[in-house]
Design goal:
4-stranded antiparallel β-sheet, alpha+beta, 4 strands
Length: about 90
């Protein structure tokens, strides 16, 4: 099966927390990877998301360790909407 990873950058204006995170994360820009696989048998190209991962810490912060944390895209969208309301 053919797969691909697309990367986006999301911005939080204030501290945020996603389910599964040990602690709130500071405001900033965060890279998010979306893993997708090709849906076979369609007459045109279609991709299905099979996973999403957020890179910690934020892009501008330098830390001795970095990690990729699995996230639910719906939780990310809700946190971004809440952040937008607060700003």
């Amino acid at each position: 099966m053919t797969s691909r990873t697309t990367q986006t950058v999301v911005h939080f204006s204030s501290d945020f927390r996603l389910p599964g995170f040990d602690a709130p994360q500071p405001a900033g820009d965060y890279r998010v990877d979306h893993d997708e696989e090709l849906v076979e048998g369609t007459s045109r190209l279609a991709w299905r998301r099979v996973g999403a991962f957020m890179h910690l810490p934020a892009v501008a912060r330098h830390a001795p360790t970095q990690q990729m944390v699995p996230i639910n895209p719906a939780d990310l969208e809700a946190a971004l909407a809440k952040d937008l309301e607060q700003s």
